Amino acid sequence: LMGTVGTHGINRALYKSLPFDPIKDFVPITLVAAVPNVMEMNAEKAKQSGIANVQDFVKYLKANPNRLNMASSGSGTSIHLSGELFKSMTGTQMTHVPYKGSGPALMDMVAGNADVMFDNLPSSMQQIKGGKLVALAVTSSQRSTALPDVPTVEEAGGPALKGYEASSWFGLLAPAGTSPEIVNKVQQAVAKSLGTPEVKEKMQAQGAIPSGNTPAQFTKLIADEHVKWAKVVKDSGATVD
């Protein structure tokens, strides 16, 4: 089974009830990869607003609460909650505008009808490289090889954003009760594959950060993600029910 930041990181806090328990019903095997989101603005809007980096962005929001609208692919998605985490840590306000998917939101970003978005990096790459959107930062804990000159939010944001991290990750899990021998065997095979130059190169070209970590490390990641996103969901009031 392939789990994601949504199914095993966010949804437990977002939905009133789920048909499964993302903690008790599964045994984590390994994180396959994490895909950063990218904090981006419509290039013309950024220029008009005098925003060239994350600290400029925060200063603008402090002086102009809710002046900028924040597009997302829908309420409760990692794209939405990445922005809510940013707002919470900086004490700033933006007007959230949920779209039915990333595609329509991205179209409005390019057209100038939306101001900022914390989009999945691969889907925005073409518009960033084409100059329609400007990437202020990536949301991962390390820079992306796909945009090596773009800093992380933590790097660019100063003390208020220390520890900021938000990625759209996916990993392998097994049904609860699966033997440790099987779990370890699968993890080792996946880690070996992810470590090959061919696989690493293909994933990094798409903006993904390959992992292959241990079952214990993946278990801790899922537990930490539950805590982090539960607080963001509660603070933001995000809901889909």
TrEMBL record:
It comes from Variovorax paradoxus. Belongs to the UPF0065 (bug) family. This is MFS transporter. SUPFAM superfamilies: Periplasmic binding protein-like II. Gene3D superfamilies: Bordetella uptake gene, domain 1 (3.40.190.150), Periplasmic binding protein-like II (3.40.190.10). It holds the Pfam family TctC.
